[in-house]
Fold:
Amino acid sequence: MKKLSDILIKTAQIISISMMIILTLSLFIGVIARYVFNISIPELQVIRNFSIFWLVFTGSALAIKEKAHLEIDIFSDYMSKKAIILKNRIVYILVLAAIIILIVIGIEAWQVGLSRRELVSVRFLESQPNLIYYYSSILIGSIFMLFFHLQLFKETFFKKRSADK
Structure:
């Protein structure tokens, strides 16, 4: 299980870093092309959208792994330890439900992406590509999120018991 976790973490990190680099380069090239050479490259919008989709979903998965998502914790100072544990369990279950909803949406998006075509014309392709390369990020990122969230299960539900031993 540790080996699979390491592989998924490394994969998500590589995808996120690659998408950040691609996004940065496409933005830079677009600015230079427009303001220096006075030309527009519409294909860069396709590349930017692709990068943003994948960056959001793989980055969210990594944020779940690192517990780096936004957390508002103003009431915990006024709660007992038992109430804090209960609150953490409820939040865990709600996040799990949200991830499952994302997976269902990802499956639907995957199917829709097979039949829908890119609206921006891509000059070097004979026909417009389908949108599966965008929409697959929802499903794959959500699966990563589910795996990383399930890894937190033991810590969330059995933290008190392991601390007592």
Summary: The chain has a mean pLDDT of 84. The helical segments are 2-35, 43-66, 81-115, 132-151, 153-164. The chain has five helices and no strands.
